[in-house]
Write a structure and sequence with these properties.
Low-confidence stretches: 24-68, 269-293
Radius of gyration: 18 Å
Structural class: alpha+beta
Number of helices: 8
Oligomer: single chain
Helix content: 10-25%
Order of helices and strands: HHHHEEEEEHEHHEEEEEEHE
Shape: globular
Strand order of the largest sheet: 5-3-4-6
Length: 293
């Protein structure tokens, strides 16, 4: 086994360093999740590795919307667009720094490292709008994150990352590193394909984004999947990038939110991306812009 394989990829270190920088750029905004203006004073480091493991940690929390606060535009839909809605997702993640030096959201992404992370990891507290640091985003579940073009983080979700990487490698017939996955996903974002043999966890476009699960299609809302309908015969437009569809098809088990029976209050547009995001075109390797202030 190569040294990179034994350590779960040399490039995994990029993600570890990105998480580690959060310790010295911690803010009260990250702890309370309700401030737009970042606190620039670093919090004290934890006293040693053993102390860090005793506390349930890494709190990347969205801004409050259900208790009087104003939510930030950091919730991700299956198109990859950002929204300011009160619902909180089951995962966090990032795609680089999205804010300016005043903490205002000014870009859709920076770089091709798009990952899905746990919301609690080793006690790290992360500010929501830190200039020149990665900006936390929030996803309902793995299906939304994968459809938006992200993949599991190699540090805080290391086992899931390895399962995803090995599933892609099995589909392609050759080993894959983190950089290989990042480049593949970057080339596939903003495109759609059609497929009739889709695995559970893929997201398709019907009357809007819908989750494929157990022979049914479930509509997307920020509060959960709902409105099950029978899966139609024939091919469907697929929003999930082909690399992630291959991972799902070859054994990657996504963590999904249990579908609900009631109609949620906050939904997404029907069959097109939100305003500000280019509509996906079959076969066109177009990046999403979707910039929001």
């Amino acid at each position: 086994m190569s040294r990179a394989g034994a350590n779960g990829d040399v490039t995994r270190g990029r993600e570890r360093r990105r998480h580690a920088r959060a310790r010295t750029a911690t803010s009260r905004a990250g702890a309370n999740g309700d401030h737009r203006t970042p606190e620039r004073l670093p919090a004290p480091r934890t006293a040693g590795r053993a102390a860090a493991t005793r506390v349930p940690l890494f709190r990347a929390r969205p801004g409050r919307g259900d208790d009087g606060g104003v939510p930030l535009p950091n919730r991700v839909d299956p198109f990859g667009a950002l929204h300011a809605v009160p619902e909180r997702g089951g995962f966090t993640g990032n795609r680089g720094c999205l804010v300016d030096d005043d903490g205002r959201y000014v870009r859709h992404h920076r770089g091709n490292l798009w990952i899905i992370c746990r919301t609690a990891f080793r006690g790290r507290r992360v500010g929501l709008t830190r200039p020149r640091r990665w900006t936390p985003l929030f996803f309902l579940d793995d299906a939304v994150g994968l459809a938006a073009g992200h993949r599991p983080c190699g540090e805080c979700r290391h086992a899931d990352y390895l399962a995803y990487r090995e599933a892609v490698a099995a589909a392609l017939g050759q080993p894959q590193r983190a950089g290989d996955l990042n480049r593949r996903l970057a080339a596939e974002r903003g495109t759609t394909s059609t497929d009739s043999d889709l695995p559970d966890g893929a997201v398709v476009l019907s009357d809007g984004p819908r989750l494929v699960l157990g022979g049914r299609l479930y509509a997307f809302a920020f509060s959960g999947w709902y409105d099950p309908v029978a899966r139609p015969a024939g091919p469907l437009p697929v929003l999930t990038p082909p690399t992630s569809v291959a991972a799902l098809r070859h054994g990657y088990a996504p963590q999904l939110t249990t579908p609900q029976l009631t109609t949620p209050s906050t939904r997404t547009p029907s069959s097109v991306p939100p305003a500000g995001s280019p509509a996906p075109r079959a076969g066109a390797p177009t990046r999403r812009s979707g910039r929001r202030p």
